[in-house]
Amino acid sequence: MCNTDPVATAFPILKKSMPQMQYEGVEAPDWLDSLNSRLKSADAVMVVSAEYNHSIPPALSNMLDHFPPASYAYKPSGIVCYSTGTMAYD
User: Fold this and answer.
1) Choosing a second label site near 67 at 20 to 30 A (CA), which of 10, 16, 53, 76?
2) Distance (Å, rounded) from C-alpha 83 to C-alpha 50?
């Protein structure tokens, strides 16, 4: 199971995604390569997060955008958001 908390990881918000998606011959940092390998080897991807302004938090979106689409390809996946706000159900 890959349990990676965006807060505990060094994702630079609003930075470029994995360099190899942007430029040929540029290496991704080791920590990002390692997380991408874990993601690619996972059987499925399930994200559970607090709701932020009727969507997923921007930091979570930024984290997911760091990985190339091939890392998620052909995997069952889902994003579940929960809320304790006035729109939440009892």
Assistant:
1) 53
2) 6
Reduced to 3 states (helix: H, G, I; strand: E, B; else coil), residue 49 is strand
Spatial distance between the Cα atoms of 78 and 45, rounded to a whole number of angstroms: 7
Q: Which two tokens mark 87?
A: 């729109």
H-helix or E-strand spanning residue 50? strand 45-50
Task: For residue 45, give every residue at least 6 positions away whose Cβ sits within 8 Å of its Cβ, in sequence order, or none.
Answer: 39, 72, 75, 76, 77, 78
| pLDDT tens column, 31-74 | 888 888 898 899 999 999 988 888 888 888 888 888 888 888 89
